[in-house]
Specification:
Layout lengths: L33 E3 L7 E6 L10 H9 L3 E4 L9 H6 L2 H15 L5 E7 L1 H10 L5 E7 L10 H11 L4 E3 L19 H9 L1 E3 H16 L5 E7 L6 H12 L5 E4 L12 H16 L1
Parallel strand pairs: 2-3, 2-4, 4-5, 5-8, 8-9
Antiparallel strand pairs: 1-3, 6-7
Helix pairs in contact: 1-9, 4-7
Amino acid sequence: MNIDFSVFNYYVPDSWYKGVYKDVGEPCKAGRSFSLTLIEPSKECWLLVTGYRGYPGELVRPAYDLFLEGYDVYVPRLPGMGTTTKDFLKSDSSDWIETIINAIKDLSTKYEKINLLGHSMGAAICSMVGVNNPKVHKIVYAAPSFENLELPWYLRLYLSFISIFVRKVKANWTRTNTHHHHYEGAPDDDDYLGEQYYKWHFTKHLLMYYQISKDGIFALGDHEHLLICPLNDSNISIPSTKQFKKAMKDKANIVEIENGTHLIFYDIDEAAEQKAVEAVLDFARK
């Protein structure tokens, strides 16, 4: 897809980061917050929320398509992400959640309706802060990470214990060239993000991630929503969708994407990516 980056504004209001960890490192290009706003005032906007160790560049595709559809769109970088390992270790889950709460508060003074789209852990955050907020109109849960990541009590206890002494553990990560990144300058930042984030398991932060995943499913209630489940994401999306169905019962609105992976908005399968984006746009139009 051809994306016109001249319409991107790599900025969101500073007030969204009031009271949260302030990063020391500069974000890489893929990690920059961005907004897409129309010339004519809009009454409705979309706020997109990234996942664990995620970065705004992962959500360029749905953001740009929603903008072309006629919405203002905002994609903030969560504290500690898209910069450095040191920043990530100094941030915590309260910073991530508070950033989105601050964003909704600010946007509610400018728009009649706020819609949320969360990817992976971002979906759980959207549930936590959006379901009972009267200003939030619609929520999209894209490849969500809900309670399926809950650890057995003994492994949780072990992780809690080692997190006292070890902040990060080496992970097995190698770069692949199979995904279709859409951020400006892609895939220039892949190796850097891998070195800073994906080559490590962060012990305390994994516990935070698991807690958000759990809290997100408990926060669910009656609201206008869409869940996008990529069917090649057996570790996260499929078990999360089962939890979602239990919680929402006959009210669950789910679109399954054949061949889609967890990274559905820059997927290996471009047809799967397109179907996911079309599902978001169809839901936005309703």
